[in-house]
Amino acid sequence: MSALHEAAERLLKAAKAAGADVAEVVLHESASVSVQRRLGKIEETERAETRELGLRVFLGRANASVSASAIDPASFTRLAEQAVAMARVVPEDPYAEIPEAPAPLDAGFLELDDPVEPGMDVLIARAAAAEEAALSVAGITNSEGGSASWSRGTSLLATSHGFVGGYARSHHGVSVTAIAGTGTQMQRDYDFSSTLHGADLEDAATLGRNAAERALKRLNPRRAQTAKLPVVFDPRVAGGMLGHLAGAISGAAIARGTSFLKDALGQAIFAPGIAIIDDPFRVRGLRSRPYDREGQPVHARAFIEDGVLTSWILDTRSANQLGLKTSGNAGGLSNFYLAAGKLSPAALMADIAEGLYVTEMIGSGVNGLTGDYSRGAAGFMIRNGQLAEPVAEITIAGNLKDMFLHITPADDLQFKRGTDAPTLRIEGMTLAGA
């Protein structure tokens, strides 16, 4: 970290010497290793190391940025002069700035860094255990392989206002995809685990068996009949609802007036009791952080509290446009989740005479201006409260305003993806099938 700190100071000095009023430097160095194994053979191993920098400079309200794929002090003067020259010829941006920031928190309490790099033999063993477990399940006929990976990166942010902050983050991953059936009747499914610490990974063999069992259940899907019915979203796809919400309440979209929720601040847009939270301080959270991309303090924040929209997702620029203060979300959200409800998934479905359980989504199909929603899907019919026959090649449709108001969460929230939700039930969606 000391080497990055020294490099940042030198680059900031070069920017000031070139004529910048204020400047910001981001430095990042990382190493990663991955292995891909299929049908008992290692198909690919890879190791990569990167060192990158970004420099942003301001002349008054005009700003420009440059980047490089190497941290080479010999190039700092040239990069700084290039950035300043660009800033001299671009229009001023009345809302952009490099804000003052307090001293950063030490990231140690978040436990973001696992300092132990696994050997290639460990990664191969993880990939092998996942794939072999999948292939051992009767009815599995092929595999897209098992993979395992590790990475560790160190990032540093420094500004000419005096802010300097940096921390390291590690990542371990295992995934596997199994194939059931033959010919045109093949079906695939997957499972994975992604954690910051190797000790927190889910058991690789369990992942393999899960992928296999899911693939088998999808065999011989039917085309469902067109109907209006309750739709239940598996946790693997339920987080997509939060992605749509995040896009709709981003400060940039609100400032442009391009969101269907642009007038919804302070209004109930979900049912009472619903909470949607961004928590940057979750210990070992995939997206935890001690400060945001601008060095601003971060806080756990309920963007939806008791169903009510409480805040936009703001960085400094979008906050300035709207006459508000940043929410500490420069660079995006952290650990974003919909809080668990009180019903089990089984209880959530118990009264559904006919419905749809979605396990896979296809395409984007969302209109940010109107909230209209139409996406391809696959999953299972629900009949009398139980999962029934698999279905595929269907479309589900609605409007996000209505969908948000009619969401009911189950109690099975798991923090697995960075954006997470439990099983979700939404009333009155349209299923377009046969």
Present the secondary structure layout.
Blueprint: H1 2-18, E1 22-38, E2 41-59, E3 62-68, H2 76-89, H3 120-135, E4 140-159, E5 164-180, E6 187-195, H4 204-217, E7 227-233, H5 235-248, H6 251-256, E8 276-278, E9 301-305, E10 308-309, H7 316-322, E11 336-338, H8 345-349, E12 354-362, E13 372-383, E14 386-399, H9 400-405, E15 407-409, E16 419-420, E17 424-432
Helix pairs in contact: 1-2, 3-4
Structure description:
- By secondary structure, the protein is of the alpha+beta class.
- It folds into two domains: 2-217, 2-Layer Sandwich (PmbA/TldD fold); 221-434, no CATH class.
- It is built from nine helices and 17 strands.
- It has helices at 2-18, 76-89, 120-135, 204-217, 235-248, 251-256, 316-322, 345-349, 400-405; strands spanning 22-38, 41-59, 62-68, 140-159, 164-180, 187-195, 227-233, 276-278, 301-305, 308-309, 336-338, 354-362, 372-383, 386-399, 407-409, 419-420, 424-432.
- The protein has a six-stranded antiparallel sheet with strand order 3-2-1-4-5-6.
- The longest helix is centred in the first third of the chain and has 17 residues, at 2-18.
- The relative contact order is 0.13.
- Belongs to the peptidase U62 family.
- Residues 227-433 form the Metalloprotease TldD/E C-terminal domain.
- InterPro entries: Metalloprtase-TldD/E_C, Metalloprtase-TldD/E_cen_dom, Metalloprtase-TldD/E_N, PmbA, TldD/PmbA_N, TldD/PmbA_sf.
- One of its GO terms (molecular function) is metallopeptidase activity.
